[in-house]
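Collaborator request, handled under Task 6.
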Amino acid sequence: MMPLPDYYAMLEVLPSATLDEIKQAYRRLARIHHPDLQSVPTRDTRIKQLNEAYNILSDLSKRTAYDMRRLQEVRRALLLEVLRQQQEAARREPKMTWTQGAAGFVRELKKGLREE
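C-alpha cells returned to the collaborator:
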C-alpha cells in the first residue's frame, strides 16, 4: 500500500487550517511554482502536486475522507510500532531451557500431590 501524501505539508498549512488559509497558501505556492512563471523551464510535477492537494483539501467531503484515511494510517503505524516493541522485548527475555521446563513441571506436580 502506498503511503498517503501529506497534502497539508504540500500546501504548508496545518491540518486545522480554514478554507481561506488553504486557498491563500495554494495561490501563493502556485505563483511560485507555476511553470509559466518560472524563468528557468522546470518540470510541472510540483504544480500538479499542489493542484491535487488543493483539490482534496478545498472540498469538505474529500477533505473529511482524506483526514479519516490519515488517522487510520497513523493508528496503523502506532499499532505496528507497539507490536515491534513487544516482539523486541520478547526477544530480549531469557528463554527457558528444556531441562528447566521439565524440572519446573516436576516441581509443580510434586506440590500438587502434596496438597491433596
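The cover message to the collaborator said: "The chain has a mean pLDDT of 89. The chain is about 70% helix and 0% strand. Please let us know whether this matches your experimental observations."
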